[in-house]
Design brief:
The complex is a heterotrimer of chains A (about 350), B (about 450) and C (about 400).
Chain A lengths: L1 H13 L12 H8 L2 E5 L8 E2 L5 E2 L1 H14 L5 E5 L5 H6 L5 E2 L7 H5 L3 E3 L4 E3 L1 E6 L14 E5 L3 H12 L5 E5 L2 H9 L5 E5 H8 L8 E3 L7 E3 L2 E3 L3 H19 L7 H4 L5 H7 L5 H4 L6 H8 L3 H8 L29
Parallel strand pairs in A: 1-4, 1-5, 9-10, 9-11
Antiparallel strand pairs in A: 2-3, 6-14, 7-13, 8-11, 8-12
Chain B lengths: L2 H6 L21 H9 L4 H27 L13 H4 L7 H13 L7 H19 L6 H21 L1 H27 L3 H5 L2 H7 L4 H29 L12 H26 L4 H16 L2 H15 L10 H25 L2 H9 L4 H16 L1 H14 L11 H9 L9 H36 L1
Chain C lengths: L19 H33 L31 H34 L4 H15 L3 H13 L9 E3 L3 E4 L2 E4 L1 E4 L3 H29 L5 H19 L4 E4 L2 E2 L4 E2 L2 E3 L1 H28 L2 H9 L4 H31 L11 H13 L2 H33 L2
Antiparallel strand pairs in C: 1-2, 2-3, 3-8, 4-5, 6-7
The chains are: A alpha/beta (about 350), B mainly alpha (about 450), C alpha+beta (about 400).
């Protein structure tokens, strides 16, 4: 068969091909000359990355891409979003099809090391949880013995689920589907008692149910899922850009700089604020960006808190509490190194 | 045989006395007799008839009630289709289809660019009619349109962006240069003699210059016109790139089917010829390819295209996500097509081959001019059946994450805007109608061709 | 037009380049070189890419712990101790299970509908035609979605299962029935069953010979039934009925205990059966139509009724036409069972090319193994079919 396969490949390469990046010059320089950032996002998870009917992407993960675009081009719209399934997200990143991956990706050691990737931070602290029907009258995942659980196949979710029930010596029945749509549909139609995925996903998937109020998310979190943006090994400057874009959003929230007041803050005398908005020091230059890079981010996209509330928090349908994702000053885990 | 042998025969199964005369049948013509002889002749048939009647009586009114009488035809969200909101039993929620039909047709293709899809649809329809309608003129031109112009135009129009339009411009320049070259050859007297042999001139000199120019070069002219229009469109309104990730709905379903059809037919011909070739290596490669592909499910081929294809090429040429299943489907269909065409080749009488060879035709001339035109014609029904299978199989691309028509239906089923108890039944019914109309239409066509061919055979 | 040559071809003078034999060799060599080159390129790219992506290769994963669970398994499998290799067998057995049951059911349904389409009963023939036209012209995937949701949706929740006689329960988790627990000595019953089957076959052969010799017919069916069922039953009663049942109990979520038939299995089985039956019906119809009308008329003239005519005259002859396409339909059913992946039935593709592939990331190995399995099934079936066809063809004169 290979004869035709090869011919098709040659044809494929000649007609439609997504040019990959050459690694000789830095990725940032390439992005600047190309005029847009290519950002790998999820295929559609409400609150984190989802396109609307017109194809405009919104979400917490999407905002990070927009912030990077704002920092580089002073325009949050110069992003090309590539929807990637969980199966081929890493291949797409490794092959240079996307510049970064900002789509609910758990930071694990093997991914960070063996796969040749770098995680630039944790923009959402997540963990796997369960959703059940209210009328079952269950308030804890430890009471799920004998339940049947719907899950998506081929994810760590499936493994965590097995570990959790094994560790607690409970019997269960797993029903695994290829796509999240099939999974939530089967759960809704009563095939399963519980639905499991990352708790952020639970809130997002709950919106797809016809009566979301009939379902509750159980308090237990059975795994650590720090989600964050990912880049390839081998381009430290680009890693810095992604990392500090995210830190700038966090620092802006910590310093009280928001979309609304960022222009006033240009006149601030607070040295921390001055360094952030670029009126003091040349911090942008060090990573190949203009000095007002952080100002641009906040101006076009907002700080981390704004992005959170707008996309997944109280300003959204998901209504996820800040919880672990509050700033360290407010009892959460979100902590950014200072700009100085 | 004499009477004596019959009477002396030991066979106990021969009746020896006359049966009493039976009563005359009630009637042998008219509806009553028809019913008696077709529905109630014998106890088993009566039971079967009653059973079938029961099935019809219980299912048909229910279906009619659900899909027509109780159906909801207009509305903007699920409240229109919830029984307790509108106070009557609710059947199919057609309002949901009406609300989402744009999504079913175009997927997430940007609204401002959808006219491009419409043009491709129109060209596709034109090509199909041209190819399939028996009385359509200039079939060769039609084939060129369908197999060459349409794919290139669709590629440029649907994808757009610098790479596609750049490709279009190169094509246009090449075509213009060719046209100019031929124009000089035809209109400037004397030059032609310089370039071509005397034999060609003897045929062509008699024709007036414009005819000499037009007749053989009309393919180029048509390509020039088609691409010129697209280039003008591009100049007027621009063709920004629309990434394949945004394509969806029926657009993708037709695209997958069309790519399968356009590539599988020539590939299938090549494979079938290869399988019947006398050259051992060519034959072996063809057989291995055909049997391998026919021995595995399409899903595995699609998975292979999706996960292994990117590994087989250098990383910077990683194929587009939509292109991968297209390659898979085209190769898969080609193997099945090859077997159909091989049947046609085998059905050709040996005399046709011998006749062609005795005329001094070479292998390719013989195939192109004598064998293939006849062989392909007799297997048209088989080819259409393969297309039907291919069309149904396009649904499998959803498994590798492509938003085809069925997938867009599935996607809207988890959308709470239209989450009602009857949405699912409506969505599946709509999908079923779509696929049924397409496949059934094709099978009707194949039957009519079969009849036409049979008429030719009957004589 | 341009091929009108001015000089007659001169035999013997043609250069080596125009020798068709030599040309053939050249073509083949070029093609072979091209294929080898493409394979080499693909392989080297694959090795390069795998190394760059740090994906392991080879079959070492086979003995690694799987760490996930599967609901329907014919062999013991659990997250705690099972390997990817065992997951492969679980998936393969599930594929074979649904395919083999599907083949049997589809054959019966297909023959019935194929015969019904030719029935003189107008309404039956029309219904059969509508069935065939509708089912054949819809994608199987859509039908599976329909069956899965049609089988699943209307059934009650686990808490109010439909109780069927004999402690069998039906709900949207499937069909839950008591599972037998075999006591000591039960193997005697199994043995008796085997003896019964062998005796039945022996009797059938004997009665056939008797019929050919004397024309006397025996009630084969009844006697076979008695031998196969009654003999083990007697043994079972004699040794004191060593059989108990694990009865389903209502648990917090679902019935526990007993054995469960999952709705995914039912949906896939029904979908495959009804879909393939429509194709088999067409094959059967074509086969019956291929038997010349004279055969039927001759049988009627001999006084055979329509039933025996079909059974003794038409079908045996039609089988010769039917068998080859029937086999390819069986293969299609087996290959189509891979669509299980969309409704969550753990078949080979779902377990192995889905879950295991995603856990290990070794696409090349998983896809190759899965393809090899289907290819083996196909090739083995065609092999036996060819043997069968040869034997059938000998009957023809």
């Amino acid at each position: 068969m290979n004869k035709y396969f090869g011919a098709a490949l040659v044809g494929a390469a000649m007609t439609v091909c997504i040019g990959g990046a050459q690694a000789q010059t830095g990725l940032l320089a390439q992005i600047k000359s190309r005029g847009q950032v290519t950002c790998g996002v999820g295929p559609g998870l409400a609150g984190f990355g989802i396109p609307d009917a017109q194809g405009n992407w919104t979400g917490l993960d999407v905002d990070l891409c927009r912030a990077i675009s704002a920092a580089i081009f002073n325009d949050p719209l110069k992003v090309k979003f590539v929807p990637l399934s969980s199966k081929d997200r890493f291949t797409a990143l490794q092959s240079g099809e996307v510049d970064l991956l900002s789509r609910n990706t758990t930071w694990t050691m093997s991914r960070d090391t063996a796969l040749g990737l770098n995680f630039a931070g944790v923009n959402y602290y997540d963990g796997q949880g369960f959703m059940v029907r209210k009328k079952l009258g269950i308030d804890s995942a430890l009471k799920l013995a004998g339940a049947s659980v719907c899950t998506q196949q081929g994810t760590t979710t499936e493994l965590n689920l097995a570990d959790f029930f094994r560790a607690n010596k409970m019997k269960y029945e797993v029903v695994a589907f290829a796509t999240s749509d099939e999974t939530i549909k089967a759960y809704e139609s009563g095939r399963c008692d519980a639905f499991t995925t990352d708790s952020s996903g639970l809130y997002a998937e709950r919106l797809k149910l016809s009566v979301p109020e009939d379902h509750i998310v159980l308090p237990e979190i059975i795994s650590k899922e720090p989600l964050g943006p990912v880049v390839r090994h081998g381009d430290d400057n680009w890693l810095d850009v992604v990392k500090w874009t995210y830190f700038a959003m966090l620092n802006a929230e910590e310093l009280g700089i928001s979309k609304a007041n960022v222009d006033e803050m240009l006149k601030s005398e607070n040295p921390d604020i001055k360094r952030l908005v670029g009126t003091e020091g040349k911090f942008g230059e060090a990573i190949g960006l203009p000095n007002d890079w952080a100002y641009r981010i906040v101006k076009h996209v907002g700080n981390y808190g704004e992005s959170f509330e707008k996309n997944v928090g109280q300003g959204s349908l998901l209504k996820i509490a800040r919880g672990q994702n509050a700033l360290w000053t407010k009892g959460g885990l979100q902590y950014a190194p200072p700009i100085r | 045989m004499t009477d004596a042998t019959t009477e002396n025969a030991p066979n106990f199964f021969i009746r020896r006395e006359t049966l009493p005369q039976e009563a005359a049948p009630l009637s042998v013509a008219g509806p009553v007799a028809w019913i008696r002889s077709n529905l109630f002749n014998g106890p088993l048939n009566t039971i079967l008839t009653l059973l079938c009647a029961y099935i019809v009586v219980t299912s048909v009114p229910g279906i009619l009630r659900f899909y027509f009488i109780d159906a909801v035809w207009s509305g903007t969200n699920r409240d229109a289709c919830l029984a307790d909101k509108i106070g009557r039993p609710v059947g199919a929620c057609w309002a949901y289809i009406a609300d989402r039909y744009q999504y079913f047709i175009y997927g997430s293709y940007p609204i401002s660019e959808r006219w491009r899809v419409n043009i491709v649809f129109a060209m596709f329809a034109l090509g199909i009619v041209w190819m399939l309608w028996n009385k359509a003129p200039m079939k060769k031109l039609g084939a060129f349109f369908f197999f060459v112009l349409l794919p290139i135009s669709a590629y440029v129009l649907l994808l757009g962006g610098p790479s596609a339009t750049g490709f279009l411009h190169i094509l246009l320049w090449v075509l213009l240069a060719l046209t100019a070259y031929y124009a000089v050859l035809s209109f400037v007297p004397g030059i032609a003699r310089f370039y071509t042999g005397p034999a060609l001139l003897a045929v062509e000199e008699a024709a007036p210059p414009w005819k000499r120019f037009y007749r053989p070069k009309r393919l180029i002219l048509m390509a020039l016109v088609a691409f010129g229009i697209i280039a003008l469109l591009e100049n007027a309104v621009g063709l920004p790139r629309v990434d394949t990730g945004l394509w969806g709905g029926m657009t993708v379903t037709f695209l997958v089917a069309a790519v399968g059809i356009v590539f599988s037919l020539p590939l299938g011909v090549v494979l079938a010829l290869g399988r019947r070739s006398k050259l051992p290596i060519i034959q072996l490669l063809s057989v291995v390819f055909i049997e391998f592909v026919r021995g595995v499910p399409l899903i595995t081929v699609l998975f292979m295209a999706n996960t292994m294809l990117p590994l087989f090429v250098p990383q910077e040429y990683s194929p587009d996500r939509l292109l991968r299943p297209l390659v898979g489907v085209a190769l898969f269909a080609a193997a099945y097509m090859a077997e159909v065409i091989r049947g046609g080749l085998q059905a050709m009488p040996k005399g046709q081959y011998e006749g062609a060879m005795s005329l001094g035709l070479g292998y390719w001339q013989m195939m192109r001019l004598i064998i293939l035109p006849q062989a392909l014609r007799i297997v048209i029904p088989g080819i259409v059946n393969t297309f039907i299978g291919l069309f149904k199989d396009t649904t499998l691309v959803t498994i590798v994450g492509i938003f085809d028509f069925l997938r867009t239906i599935e996607a809207t089923l988890v959308d709470p805007t239209w989450a009602t108890p009857t949405t699912r039944g409506t969505g599946y019914a709509f999908a079923a109608m779509f696929y049924f109309l397409c496949c059934w239409g094709m099978s009707r066509y194949s039957i009519s061709v079969e009849k036409r061919l049979a008429a030719g055979q009957r004589r | 037009m341009s091929t009108v040559s001015t000089q007659p071809p001169q035999p013997g003078k043609a250069s080596l380049f125009y020798d068709p034999k030599i040309r053939g060799y050249v073509y083949q060599l070029v093609l072979l070189a091209l294929v080898v080159f493409v394979i080499y390129e693909a392989a080297s790219n694959a090795i390069e890419n795998l190394r760059a992506q740090k994906i392991a290769s080879g079959f070492g994963f086979w003995h690694n712990a799987a760490g996930f669970d599967v609901n329907q398994k014919l062999i013991p499998f659990s997250a705690s101790g099972s390997t990817y290799g065992q997951a492969f067998w679980v998936g393969l057995l599930n594929t074979l299970l649904v395919a083999s049951i599907g083949i049997v059911l589809a054959t019966f349904l297909g023959f019935f509908i194929g015969v019904a389409r030719l029935s003189s009963n107008w309404i039956l023939a029309k219904l059969a035609m509508i069935y065939v036209e509708v089912v054949r012209n819809l994608p199987l995937l859509l039908q599976l979605f329909f069956w899965y949701n049609a089988v699943l949706k209307p059934l009650p929740e686990a808490r109010n299962s439909i109780a069927l006689p004999g402690n069998i329960f039906l709900n949207n988790r499937g069909l839950i029935a008591p599972s037998p627990i075999f006591g000591p000595g039960f193997s005697m019953v199994t043995l008796a069953l085997f003896i019964g089957i062998i005796a039945a076959i022996g009797f059938y052969i004997w009665s056939k010979r008797q019929q050919e010799a004397t024309g006397k017919q025996y009630p084969n069916g009844l006697i076979a039934l008695a031998l196969i069922l009654v003999l083990p039953l007697i043994v079972f009663v004699i040794i004191g009925m060593p059989l108990t049942f694990d009865l389903p109990q209502q648990g917090r979520f679902n019935l526990t205990g007993g054995f469960q038939i999952f709705p995914e299995f039912v949906a896939l089985l029904v979908g495959l059966t009804t879909y393939t039956a429509a194709f088999i019906a067409e094959v059967v119809r074509a086969g019956i139509l291929a038997v010349s009308r004279g055969q039927t008329e001759a049988a009627h003239a001999l006084g055979l009724r329509p039933g025996p005519t079909l059974k003794l005259v038409v079908i045996p002859q039609a089988m010769r036409v039917i068998i080859p396409p029937l086999t390819s339909n069986y293969l299609n059913l087996t290959k189509n069972s891979s669509l299980a992946v969309v409704i969550g039935y753990p078949d080979l593709v779902q377990v192995f090319m889905g879950t295991v592939l995603n856990q290990t990331g070794q696409a090349v190995e998983m896809v190759s193994i899965t393809m090899a399995v289907y290819l083996t099934i196909s090739l083995v079936t065609s092999f036996f079919m060819n043997i069968y066809n040869k034997r059938m063809a000998l009957v023809e004169r």
